[in-house]
């Protein structure tokens, strides 16, 4: 178990959603090619969850970073900015 404050490295953290998507696509392809309906279902559902989960994480990170770049996180919305006037 990792001690508190110890995190995974940045390259691994950034690659995780794409790993989820890749594993999900592999599972979906395997479910498509498998002859057994039960095994196909058991491979396909986690594959679908992996693809959807990876896409959600990618989009959430992108939106958060865009919001952070536009400085929307620390602004006081009660005071209109100079652009709005």
| Element-level helix/strand string | HH
| DSSP helical segment count | 2
Unreliable stretches (pLDDT < 50, length at least 5) are none
Number of domains: 1
State the end-to-end distance. 53 Å
Quick recap:
With 85 residues, the protein is mainly α. The protein has helices at residues 10-33, 37-69.
Describe the structure.
By secondary structure, the chain is an all-alpha fold. The protein has one domain (10-69). 67% of the residues lie in helices and 0% in strands. It starts with 9 loop residues before the first helix and ends in a 16-residue tail after the last helix. The mean pLDDT is 86.
Topology:
Blueprint: H1 10-33, H2 37-69
Structure keywords:
85 residues; mainly alpha; 2 helices; 67% helix
């Amino acid at each position: 178990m990792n001690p508190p404050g110890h995190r995974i490295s940045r390259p691994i953290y950034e690659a995780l959603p794409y790993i989820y998507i890749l594993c999900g696509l592999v599972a979906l392809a395997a479910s498509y090619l498998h002859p057994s309906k039960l095994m196909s279902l058991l491979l396909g559902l986690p594959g679908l969850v992996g693809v959807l989960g990876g896409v959600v994480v990618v989009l959430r990170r992108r939106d958060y970073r865009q919001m952070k770049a536009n400085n929307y996180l620390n602004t006081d919305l009660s005071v209109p900015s100079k652009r709005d006037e």
